[in-house]
Amino acid sequence: MENSVAEQQIIKSIGTSGQISLGKEYAGRKVLVESPEQGVWVIRTVTIVPDNERWLHEPTTKESVAKALVWAKKNAPKASNPDQLPSVKPHVVKRKARST
User: Fold this and answer.
1) How far apart are CA 81 and CA 96, in angstroms?
2) Are the CB atoms for 56 and 66 separated by under 8 Å?
3) Do 41 and 34 touch, CB atoms closer than 8 A?
């Protein structure tokens, strides 16, 4: 992915409530504001990943998903009859008996 960044300098005024408008194109976006030194801010747009979806971004999972997508492109879907699929026994957890 090619990233062309045109550096721009724009003078903005900080309002009385401490807000700066970045423009309507950024409305609703999440941003990370870094302050490397007093009076200097670096503002970057970010995408936040929920905790329960973080595993999808781990290298091994990404690799597995990439392999699955390649397989799916090479193997067209086929019609099947669910009644003819092999049955799978449900996994049952055995518990220890209570001692009285």
Assistant:
1) 39
2) no
3) yes
- Tell me the per-residue pLDDT of 14-55, one tens digit each, with 9 for 90 and over: 999 999 999 999 999 999 999 999 999 999 999 999 999 999
Q: Which residues does residue 32 pair with via DSSP β-bridges, in sequence order? A: 44
Neighbours of 22 (CB within 10 A): 14
The DSSP code for 7 is: -
Mapped onto helix, strand or coil, the DSSP state of residue 56 is helix
C-beta separation of 49 from 57 below 8 A: yes
Q: What is the distance between the alpha carbons of residues 21 and 47, in angstroms, rounded to a whole number?
A: 20
Name all contacts of 1-6 with Cβ < 8 Å and 24+ positions apart.
Answer: none
